[in-house]
Design goal:
Blueprint lengths: L7 H19 L11 E3 L5 E4 L1 H7 L31 H6 L18 E4 L3 H7 L38 H10 L3 H5 L9 E3 L20 H5 L3 H16 L13 E2 L1
Antiparallel strand pairs: 1-2, 2-5, 3-4
Protein name: Cytochrome c family protein
GO molecular function, one term: electron transfer activity
InterPro entries: Cyt_c_III_dom, Multihaem_cyt_sf
């Protein structure tokens, strides 16, 4: 049975659209053009970084400088996304906007834990009914109370002698579970249940909750320190370019 001639234009149009769709799907996406040079402002003198030369001419892979492995077709994150000019309140509030989505958060923030895997009844049985094995004696609390009654959730201000819940709990648990703590805990999963970070919508635990003093100096380098560490260590390893103490003028424009 032959189709009427009036259907030919429709069939031809559908065939053309199908070819265009298949060609568009199979054609690889055009990669973003790499910047040739990047200008960095600095109080010690501006720095002109020859980005394209380092990547193309020196054959330096992206991951040698950029920490994260970017998804297929995506550009590596700018250094300023993680390394601020100064680790101040403004950066803490605004840095989230530097990332495409929240999946990047756990590259710096620890995996969160939904709840404590703690069985109170089992511990009462282990202690033979002796509540003071975990709780304070009657000189501090006449009857066993919840830890949060006295110990704050967050680390207290400097000078306050009352430990927070995490420190108090770890200290008390370690007194009994010496086999775990003496060998060093390689993960929090021994006692805590991991949260599903793909569905996480809450805040992240503050750095100071686990890291005692100046966590930003331990965990997040400022942009200046990050560049000095990354660039100079690479030049020193290759014994080429500026890496000595008096080579500042080779990068900075006075």
């Amino acid at each position: 049975m032959r189709l009427p001639r009036k259907y030919f234009p429709i069939i031809a149009t559908c065939a053309v659209l199908l070819v265009v769709a298949v060609a568009g799907y199979l054609t690889p996406a055009e990669s973003q053009k790499l910047p040739v040079r990047i200008l960095f402002d600095n109080t010690g003198g501006k720095v002109v970084f020859t980005h394209l030369r380092h990547h193309r001419d020196y054959a330096i892979a992206c991951e040698a400088c950029h920490h994260e492995n970017a998804p297929q077709g995506a550009e590596p994150l700018p250094c300023g996304s993680c390394h601020p000019l100064a680790f101040d309140e403004q950066y803490v509030k605004q840095h989230v906007a530097s990332f495409p989505d929240k999946t990047y958060c756990i590259q710096c923030h620890h995996l969160e834990y939904a709840k404590l895997n703690f069985g109170h009844d089992e511990h009462v049985e282990y202690a033979g009914g002796d509540c003071q094995a975990c709780h304070h004696g009657p000189d501090i609390e006449p009857e066993p109370q919840s830890c949060r009654s006295c110990h704050p959730e967050e680390k207290p201000e400097s000078g306050d002698s009352m430990p927070d819940q995490m420190e108090a709990g770890h200290t008390r648990c370690a007194s009994c579970h010496q086999d775990m703590f003496d060998h060093g805990l390689t993960s929090c999963k021994s006692c805590h249940v991991e949260a599903d970070m793909t569905k996480w919508h809450g805040d992240f635990t503050g750095c100071a909750q686990c890291h005692d003093e100046h966590p930003e100096k331990e965990l997040v380098l400022t942009r200046t320190n990050a560049f000095h560490d990354q660039c100079m260590s690479c030049h020193e390893e290759r014994r080429q370019g500026p890496y000595k103490d008096d080579d500042c003028n080779k990068c900075h424009i006075r």
